[in-house]
Amino acid sequence: MSNMAVTRHPPIRDQIAGILRSAIVNLDFAPGQLLVERNLCELTQASRPSVREALRQLEAEGLVESHNGRGTIVRVISAEEAAQVYEVRAELEGLAARLFTERATDDQREALREALGELAAAIREEKPSKQILAAQADFYRILFEGSGNPFLDRTVQGMQVRIAQLRATTLAVPGRAAASLEEFEQIAERIGAGDAEGARRSAIEHVRRAGEAMVIARSE
């Protein structure tokens, strides 16, 4: 686990919340995992009251849940909420792919190709899931930045924790990583051909298939 110690800049509560939020995104804390205050104090080098304030902040964001007698756990996304996230995600990613095709600079297009190459290498070399997820996140970061719509980018960032959790879950489905790579390659191919509508459809189809993989993951 990466260094989670806070720096000496107020407000401490927000620093701790940011550290824990990143740990949830990176799956250092898995869905359903119990968060022990004593351990969090050691990891962040912060006081227990500060940690508690940060946990309350994350609870307000819907990232953790407090259970009487059990403590605080990382919130598990329900099947209904996951379906809702996929509905919104499909439209946003489809829009991003279309806008990227229409607006991205040559440098952004090259960056996307390089990100796809990193993702392909991570999947084909069977790298740890965290590396694959990081490569996927890098691909999407470039895609949304290249859309030329900062509001679209910020909207997706607000969903990032839940999207990261869902991606990690679907990646565990046998064969999903290889299948997703083909989908990413198709998106990139349509972008390279200047087919904005085709890129949009490919991005939406990718999310649809991810949703199907989620159903499989939850049934196992």
Distance between the termini: 28 Å
Helix content: over 70%
**What's the count of strands?**
3
Q: Can you summarize the main beta sheet?
A: 3 strands, antiparallel
Please give the CATH class of the largest domain: Mainly Alpha
What is the CATH-assigned architecture of the largest domain?
A: Up-down Bundle
Subunit organisation of the chains: single chain
Give, in spatial order, the strands making up the sheet with the most strands.
Answer: 1-3-2
Strand content: under 5%
**CATH fold category name of the largest domain:** Four Helix Bundle (Hemerythrin (Met), subunit A)
What structural category do the secondary elements indicate? Answer: mainly alpha
**Quick one: CATH superfamily of the largest domain?**
GntR ligand-binding domain-like
Counting DSSP H or I runs of 4 or more residues, the number of helices is 10
* SSE pattern: HEHHEEHHHHHHH
Please tell me what the overall shape is: globular
Q: How many structural domains?
A: 2
Mean pLDDT: 91
Q: Low-confidence spans: pLDDT under 50, at least 5 residues?
A: none
Radius of gyration: 19 Å
